[in-house]
Amino acid sequence: MMFEMLHPADQIVTLMNRIYDHNMTTALGVNLSVRDAQGTVWISPGGVDKGNLRREDIMQIKPDGTISGIYRPSAEYPFHLAIYKKRPDIKAVLHAHPPTVIAGSLLNQIPNTSLLVDTRAPMKPVSSVSYEIPGSSALGDKLSAEFAKGINAVLMERHGIVIGDITLYQAFQAFETLVLCSDIQKNAKMIGGKISILSQNDKDNFNREVAAGMGEFISSEHFGEELLARRELCSFIRRAYEKQYITSEGGVFSCKLSDGSFLITPDQKDRRDIRPEELVWIKDGKREEGKIPSPTVVFHQAVYAKESSVKSIIEARPASAMAYAVTDKELDIRLLPEIYISLRNVQKYPVGSSFTSAEMLAEAITGKNPTAIIENDCVIATGTSLLKAFDKLEMLEYSAKALIEVSAFGEEPHGIDPEAFGELERAFNL
Q1: What is the pLDDT of residue 378?
Q2: % of the chain exceeding 70 in pLDDT
Q3: CB-based burial of residue 241 (10 Å sphere; 0-12 exposed, 13-18 middle, 19+ buried)?
């Protein structure tokens, strides 16, 4: 789907649904707007259930100030207009109230996007403004003054976040990144330990263009196993997105076929609505003609070549497990014996390993070491099937979440008896 070809009203409804379904705002609390090429601002209505928004509910504000629609525009439309006036390059504004971001605003803490390797264009700095009455001209003045400095995201004290960009989808992607970093930052502080912050130089060291250099082949014929795998991959990718294990363009899934070829997610495609034909077929080291696979394709290729038992690989960023990726704390799965049977020891590897040390990382991923954590990047889960890889991803996230929640009680988890643990290993031949 080419998001920019959707009508502005449909863009707003589509992304409003995602924000609300992911519990990032309340039923009446979010407002989105798009300014079209003729200067009309399309904006979500005020006082209307955002969980059941329709395209006909979207309001219009014409360049002359005329308002049309069946309701009234959001009460905060003045700050949308003020931002557009100060920044002609901005064509969309998003405002929402994700809980961890609001919590940060109460402490004047801006989400730190340098927690994660972001090998796309870096986000502009995020600033903040002090509290003003919602919908007031004073709030509009403060926000627009920040945007006039070239800032694209502003945290409002006791209120929420405002993001502007050249498209609503790009504003939403920045929003997803800020919320994810805020959630990870909160979890990391709960488990303690030293938090690792990346420099821009760290982020610039990874080559995303490796896939572009692969040869191509023409996929003139398709077969049942491949077509079924395409459908199942799309289903699990969407499930992972809905569970917030991945962001709209932030996860990698692959599945190996019986002939040794494999399917992998494409680069820079929306995971929420990914289609079977968009997945990239990799065969004999070549990519399907006209498609660019995810940048870590070489790592996936190396794992499949070295470990015949692995049939699926997932790279994701679930917020609880990622707390261990950005700190020096170890995720001790031994505390959860039933989970340990499946995941074993979850090892950490240096940031960028799947780019710069693909062969080394592939050697480490075996049937007896099916999961891994890449510092400041992602978690990896593998399995003898797509379902089993996904199950391991969920076990990893659920385990991390349980261990993080222990810290909320203000105590350390009780350790496991070494003798009992030895019996477990002998019983399951671990």
Answers
A1: 95
A2: 96
A3: buried
CB atoms within 10 A of CB 154: 25
Report the C-alpha gap between 56 and 65 in whole angstroms: 20
**Which range has the worst mean pLDDT, 273-287, 340-354, 371-385?**
340-354
Q: Does the pTM of the predicted model rise above 0.85?
A: yes
In sign, the C-alpha dihedral spanning 8, 14, 16, 18 is negative
The DSSP code sequence of 194-232 is: PBP---HHHHHTS-TTGGGGS-EE------HHHHHHHHH
Give the chain's largest Cα–Cα span. 78
Select from 312, 316, 255 the least CA-distant residue to 280.
255
User: Quick one: pLDDT at residue 121?
Assistant: 47
Average pLDDT (252-262) is: 97
Q: In terms of Cα–Cα distance, which of 10, 1, 31 is closest to 19? A: 31
Q: At what angle do helices 77-86 and 137-147 cross, to 10 degrees?
A: 30
Tokens 């040794």 — which residue? 260
What mean pLDDT is predicted for residues 366-381?
91
The pairing of beta strand 262-264 with beta strand 280-283: antiparallel
Cα–Cα distance for residue pair 401/323, rounded to 1 Å:
9
Q: How far is 281 from 256, CA to CA, in rounded Å?
A: 10
Rounded CA separation 357/414 (Å): 36
Q: Note the pLDDT tens digit of each residue in 31-74.
A: 999 999 999 999 999 999 998 999 999 999 999 999 999 999 99
Report the pLDDT averaged over residues 273-301.
94
**Residue 212 reports pLDDT greater than 70:** no
Contacts of 427 (CB under 8 A, 6+ apart): none
Nearest to 202 by CA among 360, 320, 373, 374: 374
pLDDT at residue 257 above 90?
Answer: yes
pLDDT of the residue at 209: 60
* Residue 162 in tokens: 């405002």
Strand partners, 415: none
- The answer to whether 287 and 216 are in contact (CB under 8 A) is yes
* Residue 360 · residue 353 · CB < 8 Å: yes
Residue 72 CB neighbours (<10 A): 13
Do 35 and 91 form a contact (C-beta atoms < 8 A)? yes
> If you average pLDDT over residues 194-222, what whole number do you get?
78
Give the separation between CA 250 and CA 296, rounded to whole angstroms. 12
Nearest to 33 by CA among 60, 62, 51: 60
Closest to 177 (Cα-Cα) out of 110, 90, 240, 87: 110
